[in-house]
Amino acid sequence: MGELIGHGSFANVYRGNFHDTEVAIKVIKFVSLKDMEKSLLEEAGLMVKLRHPHIVLFMGAGIKMPDLFIVTEFMANGSVRELLDKKEVLLEPEHIKKMCIEACKGMAFLHSRKIIHRDLKTHNLLVDKYWSVKVADFGLSRAMGDTDGTMTACGTPSWAAPEVLRRDHYSYKADVYSFGICLWEMNTRKRPYSNLKPYQVVIAVATDGLRPDIEGSIPSYFEKLIRVCWNDVPAERPDFPKLREMFEEVKCPEPKYSNPTYTKAAPDLQGSQSLPNLADKNGGSSKQFN
């Protein structure tokens, strides 16, 4: 096991090598908690069934106390959230479009397997060395229909759909709402509701219809998609296959670079526009895998 590349409340993530392949190793901190063993077994059991170009590749796991860990492919460019926080990263509208299409492909596959992610956010959209986006972190995912009639409020409040925060019955459309928040982040490079405490976000989103401010710098073609994704009525939100089609129809300006590019001082293309956590469900420090 190599250098520490991410950490959070529940786990540390290390860079490693497995049969001459770079990997990320998420090591659970609380080895004394029996529930962690069950949770990790469920996460590993889910990930092993998911093979898709835009889902982070599961490579193995240790699921017996005290060795609790998950091994995945290494994502060299970290998370989308990390890229957004780096002022030197130039992210053009065409780059955002490409990243969103790839995320939609991953999420469409997940939903086709009747799995709800339940914690989709920019921290869990990881970027490989080729700038390809893949969906990660299935610790809160659940099979649709796997419920006794009650639905637990989960995920991170700033990205959670209002029906989730209200503890209403929810569907895969809750992930679409979360994706709308991600798209807003990619265009503003800001964090949603940064001036509010989590409990304030829960109340305002669930009961008052609060959404992040739509700034004038956000292109109209992205604004339309943001608004349709975070519609308060789940049935009015598109599914991910439809959302992918909508992104593919978007006409962006010709990009200066084919991929996001590190510059000494990236210009602000859209006013305050923007663009990979790992082990912490609430957003710990990381270079890969929330």
From TrEMBL:
Domain Protein kinase span(s) in chain numbering: 1-257
Listed name of the protein: Protein kinase domain-containing protein
One Pfam family per UniProt: PK_Tyr_Ser-Thr
Organism of origin: Arcella intermedia
Family membership noted in the UniProt record: Belongs to the protein kinase superfamily.
Keywords: ATP-binding, Kinase, Nucleotide-binding, Serine/threonine-protein kinase, Transferase
Binding sites annotated in the UniProt record for ATP: 26
Gene Ontology MF term list: ATP binding; protein serine/threonine kinase activity
